[in-house]
Design a protein that fits this description.
Arc Repressor Mutant, subunit A, 10 helices, about 75% helix
Length: about 210
């Protein structure tokens, strides 16, 4: 098995703390969440938290990094498959939407807090969180470029289109959460791909 038993136990505790912190940040936001509550929910002492994270900012960043890393693994796996680029884009959108539906707390942490993620409040934002968001856009852009090279997509600014794709997915999940998250979110992935490939003009045929 990978890593020593001690390392696995340490990572297991770290994940338990991250899960408790994610739930607290989702409920109360960064300002409202307190380390005592997180420690209690994780069933550790507050002192134990400081063995893993230096302060609340560090823990908050770690929650975002952990969620974004898991998302990046999904989209990288799809990018590396032997599939047509349009199919890759479809699977990426479906995968991201499904991930956000399954892990609502993570998206609640990511979304409300983004407006308050200024350099003055979160000085390590540019180093720890934003590069992972940029990485997702870069992966989507690379698939779009592949589609252009294969003659399946128009010659467009791949990075700009990838930014728009991320924006559509983000907006879809935000409104879904605001509406109470009662209906399955999967239908949104089909709508996003339809708009991305065909727009809303009458007479356009997909692919």
């Amino acid at each position: 098995m990978k890593g020593s038993r001690k390392e696995r136990e340490r990572e297991s505790r770290r994940q338990e703390i991250l899960a408790a912190a994610k739930a607290a940040f989702a409920r109360r936001g960064f300002d409202g969440a307190v380390l005592d509550e997180i420690a209690s929910e994780a069933e550790f002492s507050k002192a134990t938290l400081y063995l893993y994270f230096k302060d609340k900012h560090d823990l908050f960043y770690a929650v975002l990094e952990d969620g974004l890393d898991k998302l990046l693994v999904k989209v990288k796996t799809i990018r590396d498959r032997e599939l047509p680029p349009i199919t890759k884009l479809e699977q990426m959108v479906q995968g991201v939407i499904a991930y956000m539906e399954e892990d609502r707390d993570f998206f609640r942490v990511l979304t409300p807090e983004r407006a308050g993620m200024t350099d003055s409040r979160h000085p390590e934002l540019d180093k720890r969180v934003l590069p992972k968001l940029v990485a997702f856009v870069d992966i989507a852009a690379s698939v779009i470029e592949q589609g252009i090279a294969d003659g399946k997509l128009k010659k467009v600014d791949s990075r700009a289109v990838a930014d728009l794709l991320f924006g559509m997915m983000h907006s879809a999940v935000v409104w879904w959460l605001l509406a109470g998250a009662k209906e399955p979110l999967a239908e949104k992935s089909r709508l996003i791909m339809d708009i991305l490939l065909n727009g809303i003009q009458v007479g356009k045929v997909r692919r």
